[in-house]
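Task: sequence in, structure out. Protein: ACY2 Aspartoacylase.
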Amino acid sequence: GVEVGPQPQGVARADILDKMRKIVKHGLDFVQLFNEGKEFPPCTIEVFKIMEKVDYPRNKNDEIIAIIHPKLQDQDWQPLNNGDPLFLTLDGKVIPYQGNCTVYPTFINEAAYYEKKQAFVKTEKIKLAAKHLRSSAS
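Result:
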């Protein structure tokens, strides 16, 4: 499957649909070239590895007491550094990110994750290396 987002439930966005079509086309092009025996050279790629899910700040009654800070909203896959604004309490107090490394949040403030107690997911950027690749069937 291919998931391209973020996109609210029940909303069809032309830009997201276009990205999904391009990804599927590249995948199909790769399969065709691989099946034709093309050799792909070694490569590296940056990916985002999930570290942990982060919940909203809550009170003793398990009620959300802060929302995503406006500077973090819509910043999926962008670096979040120690001290950057993370949450904003309902009385206007900023809760900064406190971490010992840069992280890359994603699924920020997604409506589908409120019930799962997830404000966002912290990821780290890593590099993966692949050896050359060629179909053995020719």
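The mean pLDDT is 91.
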